User: What shape does this take?
Amino acid sequence: MRKLILISTLALLAGCGTPQERCIAGATRDLRIVDRLIGETDRNLERGYALEDVVRTRTRWVMCRPPKAATKDKEAEPARMCMRDSSYTVTRPKAINLAEEREKLAELEKKRAELLRSAAREVAGCKIAHPE
Assistant: This one.
């Protein structure tokens, strides 16, 4: 049992990456976020509108209790249904100001350049601190 726990723990830790990889991932986190935002803004400008996710709720019939078979002491019980709310997401178009989107894109690209410089320094530090 202990061997199984030890092996599964080691397998889990092996999937987390080396100390250098974790350090580099931390150093480039903000850069990846800004890159994602730049891509999203680019796509909004190409389309001419944004897409937003809206969470909606609907009430559905669900099985609250499964059917129970008859025993010698009790009769069979049918399944019981009840109403439950469930959430779902809908993507819908949203109007945007194209001039503001272009301005936002320019600001994000400036910020990306700053982050790229600082991330390069931090990645170099990670490679020195955690050589492979």
